[in-house]
Amino acid sequence: MNRLPMLISGFSGTAGRFGGMAAQVLQDRLELLGLELREAKIRFVQALLLACIGVVFALLGLLLLVLAIIYVLPLEWRLYGLLAAATISMLAGTMVFIALRRRLVQKPLAFQQSLTELQKDTACFSTRT
Fold first, then answer.
1. Whole-structure pTM over 0.70, yes or no?
2. Is 27 inside a domain boundary?
């Protein structure tokens, strides 16, 4: 009869240690997730700022170039020059958006490292063989 309370206290102690380990693993994973989220936000803001600045200067340069070319054209060719410049600009913009879409599709998920670690934890604690 004295063995039953000792057996129960042994199981409860083991369960408590296991619960503590599981909580520590969960805390580590959440800290990693938070760190990856912070890094993803910083990269996104940097990319957004650079893209905006690049777009402003590219548009300014393109506008000045088109105006200079149209200014040089004879008066009867200026309308055709404007139409050609608009067509070329639309095609270039479409190609840039296609390239941007391809680049965004090729990048890995933002939390890939956290997902990998959680899969490892699941495999470690799984009782299935």
1. no
2. no
